[in-house]
Amino acid sequence: MEAQKKAPTEVSALTNQDNSLNITLCSGFGQYHSAKNKRNPKPYVSVTLDQIEDMAAAPQSVAKDSAQWAIFSNLASRDVVEQRKNGEFYALWADIDEPQGRTLKETFSLAQGVMPFDMLGYTSRSATEEKQKGRFVIPLAHPVSGRDFEILQKILNDKLESAGITPDRKTETANQICYLPNKGEFYDYELDPFSGSLSVDDWGEELHAELQAIEAAERERNERMEQSLKRARERLQTDLKSPIDAWKAEYRATDLLDKYGGKVKGERACSPLSESGNYQMQVKDDGKLLSHHGSDMEAGLGKLTESGKARIIDAFDLFTYFENGNDQNAALKAAGELFTSENGQSITKHNQCQYMAQQAQELAAVEWDFTGENKTDELALPDVKDVDVTEPPGLAGDICRLMKQKARRNRPELYPLAALHVMALAGIDRRSEYVEKLNLLTLAIAPTAAGKEAAQNVAKGLARGIGCSRLLHGDSGSFKDMIYNLVEGDGASLYLVDEIHSFLGAMKNPNAATYETKMEREILVMSETNLYTFRGMEKRQLLQGFKKDIDDLETKLDKLPEDDTQERDKLQRALEKAKLRYDYIVNGWPDPFFSLMGHSVPERLDSFLTAGNVDNGFLGRTIVVRCPETRSKLDRSKRNVMGDASLQQHIEYQLGAIQGQRQVISVTPEAEDFLDACVDWYDEDEQRNHAVVGGIYARAPEQLFKVASILGLDGGKITLEHARYAHALVQQSIEDIRFLLHKAYAESGSATELDVIAHATQTILRNCKGAGITHSRLKQMVRKPRAWQELEKKDPKRKRFDELVDSMLQDGTITLDKQGQKRRYKTA
């Protein structure tokens, strides 16, 4: 109990009581009246105990959602933490929802037997003559703190229970609102103003007992917290290196909840942020908290559940929110610095050292060969240097041409991926002699404002033209969303995701919600499996909906007149479709089509290409295009609307023809021999078991066959031209992945000076292709990485960039093209 003022004299007590009755208290109207309400914030109003007494004699008569309430504190706030810390309370109160057949007068009389103090009683809005629910208000002789108020409320409720009255215990929370007199179907009130106000001294023994219990609980909690910290520090010596894992493994969420102002009662709890004071948290078996508090939802405390209707909160979530402003990076740093070993090394520093050592071990032995040349004597990789990957053959080339015509800034490297996606969408039900499904996963990386939208817009327009718009999705918030999209698309979905780094980041973040991290697995399963089987929860939910659809359709058919054949045929088709979906959900969906076309910028997506994402199989199943870091000039010419429309109509006609065919895509003997030669090279031990990109090489044949098969949709047969282009595109993807892996290595602390220079050389070669690049722009690119800047700091007078460029000019790797005063470097 916080220190109380010395008991005043009789005269001063009466004066204090008169003053207390006129102290303005926090008040509002309706459950949602709050200054912090995000949708409709309202300033609080005030009310006095004197005015409440007047209201009892002349009550309001309004619906509960408009009724006035009070918190018996002079602090205008519904925040429980603020009330406990800064509130001064002038009255206690009780809420009696179960009068047990007694009248208000009888219940009031029983209460007076254990609480012989000034007291006001009145029935609640929902009271009836048969069930006279009510509330009691007991003024205090002196104001008390919010913490002391909660202790006194518990004592009050204990005394009521001892008298055979059942109170609602939610009044034991400092911010619980008390609805004021409000006349309903039945109303009555009682008043005793002559017994004297309640003083804390009146309940001295009870207070002492409660304080002892609180102090004992706090000691126990502090001991547990100290032991938790000790054990978490010990984990630094084991394999558990994550500050989050250490924190969650050793701290109990319920201990921290109590520390930050929440309440725990058995398996239920109340959030520190709750304005209602209701116990809307469930303590789960694993120690986490399942919160249905709207305040937790609005504040973003913890993680959203799959249903989107609650929050899962663990110990680290509480630490992050209440001590680090809900900034997880700050919380990670704080926790990492808190947990230290005996020699004083923090988890953060320890992990940094471990990471650098691991990177060195994984990457130091890798030979970064960016030439793409074969180093195996027995086999040679088929040469496709004459193939321009920005100009695919046949229908795919026509689609790329349409994208170029509609682009304001040309970005031709992106167009083939979009063209392949559109063709695959048209050939959803087709297969080739090599692959069962034609779905693709692609990632394209290009600078912002470089023209990515042309590929996206044309792809969407063509999909609409061939009746496939319903299969397109811009993003997905969870694996469950993916499942529903698949079902609603009759087993097919194509995701066109701009700024895909956010999508991928959620999947890879170890602290993301479960429904986000499961998306990666769902992508891999849907894109690879020949029979997609549903989890029990999703299956039950989906079956329930389709069972209702089937019943409704059968009922409509039964009621339909026999002669209405047109409507009957329509309903019969819908019924057959619903039954087919039902069967697929029960027994598995055959050959689902899942494709993903993602775009982002180098600053966001380059870092996703790591050795870890090679190992987990995602990058091995993905075709990657890393565009040069330059932008083309803006095309300011007038659009050839008629020409664009004519070309689009031609393309849609060709795509429609693909949709109308069902035969297996065959392969010509020349194309088969070429593809076999490519696979032989990929399957050599040097590629298949490469230290870093072995997973990419191992899955290269699969990508090769898919691209060739999609191109073969145009004509129903894979030709040598199709096979050579597919090989060129897959080779370009592998080179781009290797470049980005080397970029990550060059930026690591394990890279040598030669590694940094090697990466700079590749940056120059990649960006000097085509029209070339100016000296100033090339210099900016090479000097941008931190590792290069560190090299320059070692010897500021040395002109490393000029040395590198001069050496590449001398050996003929690049050339300098001079046109008047313009100078551009180009690849030889």
Helix content: 40-55%
Structural class computed from helices and strand pairing: alpha+beta
The proportion of strand residues reads 5-15%
Radius of gyration from the alpha-carbon trace, in angstroms: 36 Å
Strand order of the largest sheet: 9-10-11-12-14-13
* Contiguous helical run count: 31
The first-to-last residue Cα distance is: 84 Å
Shape: elongated
User: Kindly state the mean pLDDT as a whole number?
Assistant: 82
By DSSP, the count of extended strands is: 26
Major sheet characteristics: 6 strands, antiparallel
* Uncertain runs: 1-18, 352-378
How is this structure best described in words?
Residues about 1-20 and about 350-380 have low confidence and may be disordered. This protein is α+β, with helices and mostly antiparallel strands and about 850 residues long. Helix 6 (about 205-235) packs across helix 7 and helix 16 crosses helix 18. Strand 11 (about 280-285) and strand 12 (about 290) form a beta hairpin. The chain is built from 31 helices and 26 strands. A six-stranded antiparallel sheet has the order 9-10-11-12-14-13.
